[in-house]
Amino acid sequence: MKAIVMSDFGGPEVLVPREVDEPIARSGWVIVKVHAAALNWHDVLVRRGQYRSPLPHTPGADGAGVRVDTGEEVVILPSLYWGHRSAAPSPQFQILGDHTAGTYAEYVSVPEECLAPRPAGYSWEQAAALPLVGVTAYRALLTRAGLTSGESLLVIGAGGGVSTMALALSSAVGAQTFVTASTSEKLDKAQRAGAAGGVLHTDDNWPQLAKELSPNGAGFHVVLDPVGLWDRSVQTLRPGGRLVVLGANVAEQVTMNVRPFFFGQYSLFGTTMGGGEDFRDLMDLVSTGRVVPPAIAATYSLADAAAAHTELEAGGAFGKIVLRC
C-alpha cells in the first residue's frame, strides 16, 4: 500500500511517499481503508521528534474511511488506551500516529472501540477532520468547563481546527461565542462562521477589548485557550468564570498574579484530547444535525503530505488541511 514514511525527524521534507506492507489483522483491532486523513499540529510535533516515535514511522492521527471487514463508513477516534477513568487518561494513553502507525496511508489498523459511523451529510474530508479536534473541543467545553445554553464563550486564536470546532459546538449548545484572531481576515471568517464578534490579539490591550465585547461588558463565562496565553486570557473572565487550557504552541510558561485569581473566584481547567465517553457524546451531538461540519481550508493528495505540512506550519489556514488517500 502507499503510505507516508518518516525515516528521520525534521522538517516537512522527511515525509516521503513509499510502498509498505498492509497492516495485519489482529484481535480487537479493525483495518480501515482510509479515504481521507486530516492534519493536526500534533502531527508536526510527531514529525519533529517530540513524541520519540519509532523510525521508520507513518504519522497521522485523524482519518475516515471504510472498514475492510464490514464495509461500514467510519471515522476514527485517535485516542488509544485511554483507560476506564473518564476524569483523566491512563499512563498508557497515546494518540494514533505517536507510536502506532497512523492515518497517512491507504490502510490503518485501529481498536474497534475507536470507530464511529461517518456522520450523515459529512464529506470524507469533513469526517476525517472531525475526530481529534471534535473530541478535544467537546471535552474542553462540555465535559470539563460545562458550557451551557445562554452562556458566553471566548475562543483564543480563531482559525485553528480546535478553535473552529469550538465555535461549532458552542453554537450547537446555544452559547454565544466571541473570538480573538491574529489577522482581520481570520476574524472576518470566524464571524461569518457564527462568531458574535472578536478582536485582534496582536493588539497589546486585547484582553480589555475582548472583555468590552462580552455581554454587558462583564466578562465571559468560559474562555478556551488552546495556545498558552492564559495569563492574559484570564483577564477576560467574569467573576466566577472558567478558563480551559489545552495547548502551548505560543507559550509554554506563564506568570500570573495569585490574588486577582482567587478574588475573582476563577476556575482553571487543564485538558487534552478526550476518550471514548467524550467521543460517544460528541457523535450523539453531531447526529442531531446541529454541529456544523469542520471547515476545510485545503485538500492535498497523500503524496503531497510535505506540502500540506508546509501550509499548516505557515499558520495562514482557516480550518483543517486534509490529505486524500
TrEMBL record:
PANTHER family: QUINONE OXIDOREDUCTASE
Pfam families: ADH_N (PF08240), ADH_zinc_N (PF00107)
Known EC number: 1.6.5.5
Domain Enoyl reductase (ER): 10-323
Keywords from the named record: NADP, Oxidoreductase
One Gene Ontology MF term: quinone reductase (NADPH) activity
Species assigned in the record: Gordonia insulae
Protein name: Quinone oxidoreductase 1
Protein encoded by which gene: qorA_2
